[in-house]
Amino acid sequence: MASAKPQTESVEKLLEKNVKGEDLTEIKRILYGKDLQTLKIPAEAQTLAGKHDFEIQAYKFGTIFKEQLRTPRIVRVGLIQTQIVRPTSDPLKEQREAIYDHVAKIVEAAAYCGVNIVCFQELWPYPFAFCTREKQPWCELAESAEDGPTTQFVQKLSRQYNMVIVSSILERAENLEDILWNTTVVVSNSGRVLGKHRKNHIPRIGDFNESHYYMEGDTGHPVFQTQFGRIAVNICFGRHHPLNWLMFGVNGAEIVFNPSATVAPLSEPLWGIEARNAAIANGYFTAAINRVGTETFPNEFSTGDGLPPHRDLKYFYGSSYVAAPDGSRTPGLSRIRDGLLVAELDLNLNRQVRDYTCFQMTQRFDLYAESLAKVAQPDYKPQIIRDN
Ligand SMILES: NC(=O)NCCC(=O)O
């Protein structure tokens, strides 16, 4: 039997293998915007990466010009993408703890790289089982956002490394009838739970049957003021919704993280566009993080799409990246390996780009508020002018 074709490592590796010299530089200029300076990765971080089998890439976004009246506002963000560590048939606690242990090593490497804010992928401590429609054992993993095992684990890391940590979990609202939510918890660098955001848009696409587990979030568009800047979280499927991105910007976000879990056939051609476009349109930085690998579940499931029952959700393609408001972006992390992407940002770039593009000044909230208010009425008639 022919073996499956190996996964492509990354678009960047393909380009570098096949295009050389000035042609490569020109292609990168057109595809990625300005050429970002790479940052030196400390030896301690390299050693951890070698020992625990993950890659590290590190880049620096500068500003357009040096300001006279404001000092630079430098912050380092770290994006962590991983595969699950243990098979999905292992005891739940062992699966979760193996992921904790592995991710802790990558956070340690991030600390060596001087990272101030780290964000993990969507529902990072578990396999992405919340698609299969199998309720058990997976609902058992749901936990309190305020003091569940994952938040407690993250709080220790935050305190140890003086890092803000953005941690996506399956929340069980123990104070409200045990309702489940897809929630991201923001833990301050002091270890305090700063707050949480519940996923606004729940997918009903392909095998992503997440609406069997949780409803659309009820937390609006919170922005978290941290010591290192104002941050927000647009959880996975919300990246297809421009108004979701917009509202985080309107509320003052300077960096919007997009912890995701998405597979190649569904979204790969969109991946490099959506978070990057959001950065351009909203005048802030975006950071998109995706998990890696194929996760195989004990029981077959199907989605009513004519395909035979199967045990996996297809391939999670990693490729995490950071984009800036001027449209420049980092290369993606690998499609096939666990990784840490470090990006140094000067948050002053946001205002410099906004002053230049005037995208915020010209966006006409008044016009769209009036139009959307009409659209939301049950008797709305589309504004079509007909040739008859
Ligand atoms: N987790 C999640 O929302 N996935 C949906 C798939 C996609 O948006 O690409």
UniProtKB/TrEMBL annotation:
It holds the Pfam family CN_hydrolase. SUPFAM superfamilies: Carbon-nitrogen hydrolase (SSF56317). It is an enzyme of class 3 (hydrolase). This is Beta-ureidopropionase. GO terms for molecular function: beta-ureidopropionase activity. Its EC number is 3.5.1.6. One of its GO terms (biological process) is beta-alanine biosynthetic process via 3-ureidopropionate. Belongs to the carbon-nitrogen hydrolase superfamily. BUP family. The gene is UPB1_1. It comes from Cryptotermes secundus.
